[in-house]
């Protein structure tokens, strides 16, 4: 039973989501850019995706970090790290959820966040603003 449980858990690691910019299988990507470089040894993203994750106006989601004035750099780094994690990590299996949208079949849901990271994100972004209630829909 223990071996079966370990095998089931391992099947949730080293996989890529079925989403718009993800590779089908994780593997080395030696040229990952900036904050995404953490995953260069085994990534679900390409070098180009990692570069786009750092652009203010990126083709990844047709979204601009500075959509409501300049987002402070100390705040933006948290959103970039989140994007790199989402696009590049091969270990999101435990949180992959089915999604029925035109641009992805899977998403991640209920991923835990360390208290320290949450508090630092708040500290760095508490003075930043957005002009949108929901970043996932309603853009035109």
Automatic annotation (TrEMBL):
GO terms for molecular function: signaling receptor activity. Coiled coil: none annotated. GO terms for cellular component: external side of plasma membrane. It comes from the Eukaryota. Keywords: Disulfide bond, Signal. The keyword Signal applies. Residues 15-140 form the Folate receptor-like domain. Belongs to the folate receptor family. This is FOLR3 protein. It comes from Oceanodroma tethys. The lineage of its organism: Eukaryota, Metazoa, Chordata, Craniata, Vertebrata.
């Amino acid at each position: 039973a223990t071996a079966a449980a370990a095998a089931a858990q391992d099947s949730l690691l080293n996989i890529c989501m079925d989403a718009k910019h993800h590779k089908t299988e994780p593997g080395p990507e030696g040229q990952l850019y900036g904050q995404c470089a953490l995953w260069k040894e085994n990534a679900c993203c390409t070098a180009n995706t990692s570069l786009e994750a750092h652009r203010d106006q990126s083709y990844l989601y047709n979204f601009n970090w500075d959509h409501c004035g300049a987002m402070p750099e100390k705040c933006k780094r948290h959103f970039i790290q989140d994007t790199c994690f989402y696009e590049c990590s091969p270990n999101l299996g435990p949180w992959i959820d089915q999604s029925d949208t035109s641009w992805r079949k899977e998403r991640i849901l209920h991923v835990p966040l360390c208290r320290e990271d949450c508090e630092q994100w708040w500290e760095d972004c508490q003075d930043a603003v957005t002009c949108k209630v929901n970043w996932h829909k309603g853009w035109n």
